[in-house]
Amino acid sequence: MGGLMSTTTSFVSKGSWGSVYRVKHLKTGVKCALKIIPKAKYREQLRVLVVHEKKLQFALSGDNIVCLFSAYQDTVNLYLVMEYAKYGHLRRFASRPDGLSENTVRLIAAQLVLGLEYIHACDVLYRDLKESNVLVFGDGYVKIADFGVSRIYRGRANTFSGTPDYMAPEMADTYHGYGLEIDYWALGIVLYRLLYFRHPFRGADKIKARELLHNINTVNLSFPDVGENDELTPTHHFIAGLLERDPLHRIGRHGGDIKQHDYFKGMSFMAIHRKLVRFQVNLPPVPYEATTELDVLPDIDPDKPMNYFDSF
């Protein structure tokens, strides 16, 4: 993406690492998201995570992965220029009962399966799938973002890393380690929350990570819409398969077999890949505040993104 970014910006959100602004590419008029991360606040921890994320996102170019256009720095901040998601992150929908239909959740699940399939094929363990890391674009399609805790996968991993609510039970076993199956456990948590607006093992109460881990290993999975004598639907079976405690029997362990599940019966993954399926988004675009206060963007050419981070 050649040319300079505009310095007239709109504030979108503030996250744990920095602030996100909507900016416009001066040549093409394309709207982009600019993430600004202050160096002074995080120093070494930030440097390792952001440089790692930059390298992974530049390397990944799948249709279900948020594109990182450019990464650069000045003496004060780090800057990441990426695709702008009109509807923000998926968490906005998870908090609204009228946000997504069951069929739309199924279509989102298919896209996330395609995204994870691509990430794993690139020998990357994602490790942080959650609603706030899935962005919803103007056409209703979703993409996976934020690779700060991802890693190149060369066998078993044993680092306790990610967001506790979405961690698979085997991640606590740092001796034996874990594999790619943890990403499918997280997918199960995401789908459950999108459908039922709560965590399957947490309930309504706020509990600590250790208590949550205990619940994950001891509490039986249940569904609010299933009575004692009701039969499980393919949706229930699919989520239960993703939330299988034993990773050796978890859906997704054998790669492409997940797409053959009855949950996706009648669905064309090729049509979704080609964006031939229409989505209805029952949510207004993410709000932003117009501002002209941000005038610190360097005069750089985003066609040469790799050079701007090399010295950091």
Quick structural summary:
This protein has two domains: 9-86 and 287-295, 2-Layer Sandwich (Phosphorylase Kinase, domain 1), CATH 3.30.200; 91-273, Transferase(Phosphotransferase) domain 1 (Transferase(Phosphotransferase), domain 1). It is built from seven helices and ten strands. It has helices at residues 39-59, 91-94, 102-121, 181-196, 209-218, 234-242, 269-273; strands at 9-14, 19-24, 31-38, 68-73, 77-83, 124-125, 134-136, 142-144, 151-152, 289-291.
Instruction: Predict the CATH topology of the largest domain.
Output: Transferase(Phosphotransferase), domain 1
Radius of gyration: 20 Å
Question: Can you list the strand order of the major beta sheet?
Answer: 4-5-3-2-1-10
The succession of helices and strands, N to C, reads: EEEHEEHHEEEEHHHHE
N- to C-terminal distance: 22 Å
Strand content: 5-15%
Shape by Cα distribution: globular
Q: Which stretches are low in confidence, meaning pLDDT under 50 for 5 or more residues running?
A: 291-312
CATH superfamily of the largest domain: Transferase(Phosphotransferase) domain 1
